[in-house]
Amino acid sequence: MTNPIEATNLSRFFGDLKAVDAIDISVASGEVFGFLGPNGAGKSTAVRMLTTLLKPSSGTARVAGFDVVKEPSAVRKKIGVALQDAAIDPLMTGNELLRLQCVLHGLPKRSGMKRCGELLERVGLTAAGDRRVGTYSGGMRRRLDLALSLVHEPEVLFLDEPTTGLDPTSRMALWEEVRNLNKDLGTTVFLTTQYLEEADQLAERIAIIDDGRIVREGSPASLKSDVGAPTLRVDVSESDLLSAREAMSCFGEERPARRNRIAIGLVSGTTGITDVLKALEDAGVEIHHVELDEPSLDDVFADATGRRLEGGQV
């Protein structure tokens, strides 16, 4: 079976600007795929090409088995799209907008009414269904936008920075909706985001894009493990520093640390903590505090590009 999203050497130029530069993307059926990068990296441009809203300058892409240039109408019937800058009429109610979407997709009236109710319940907006959208909070609007993109039960769902501008509570609520959607219906999700935690929480695989090019790709765990060992930090008394340094030296290279603390790159990972603590105990070192920091996706981005991900912190 063909993967629901396949792109080869996909590019888009605006004059001399290479917004997307020869990227390859392959997303498996039922996968949540994260497209992570800073503002202006090319994320939204890539989504617009994959959703037939923008023609590629070169390269090819197939979505739901159809060519995005040669068969755009067929692609649109199979996908749902929730764009960051989607316009929703503030004078209409949530119910009215959903019914209109059902009509546009050719659903019979009775089926459309049932579908509207199901979708409002799914995104937690049943009580607000008859309120005008102008009274909705930002989180409620994004959840309604998600419901609108699901009216025709799409095979592939594109979410373009769905939580930008939302408060932490609304962000986590939307994350839960995406998880449930993928789990319950097996929907393939293509998620663009600039938030490290969002990509880490939701995506099974991630592609990191910077300046129009993909610089890293893989599962969050594998990408972080490729950066290096986690950092183990142990606080001890000043009098025990030398003994602690000697006891810990065989478990990994020493890393910079503040006063009265020894830090190493723990090669064996979390499973090695017990061995380090035993070695310190055998050396007569009194331990005041222990912490282990795993590499983050920000570390991955920094390793690939030489800088931190702007806007990466939630």
Task: Give an overview of the whole structure.
The chain is α/β, with parallel strands linked by helices and 314 residues long. The protein contains 11 helices and 14 strands. It has helices at residues 43-50, 72-78, 94-104, 109-122, 138-149, 168-185, 196-202, 220-227, 241-248, 273-282, 297-305, and strands spanning 5-14, 17-27, 32-36, 58-63, 66-67, 79-82, 156-160, 188-193, 205-210, 213-218, 231-236, 254-255, 261-265, 287-293. The protein has a 6-stranded mixed sheet with strand order 6-7-8-3-9-10, sandwiched between helices. The protein is elongated and about 80 Å long. The model has no long low-confidence stretch (mean pLDDT 88).
How would you summarize the topology of this molecule?
Elements: E1 5-14, E2 17-27, E3 32-36, H1 43-50, E4 58-63, E5 66-67, H2 72-78, E6 79-82, H3 94-104, H4 109-122, H5 138-149, E7 156-160, H6 168-185, E8 188-193, H7 196-202, E9 205-210, E10 213-218, H8 220-227, E11 231-236, H9 241-248, E12 254-255, E13 261-265, H10 273-282, E14 287-293, H11 297-305
Parallel strand pairs: 3-8, 3-9, 6-7, 7-8
Antiparallel strand pairs: 1-2, 1-4, 4-5, 9-10, 11-13, 11-14, 12-13
Helix pairs in contact: 3-4, 5-6, 8-11
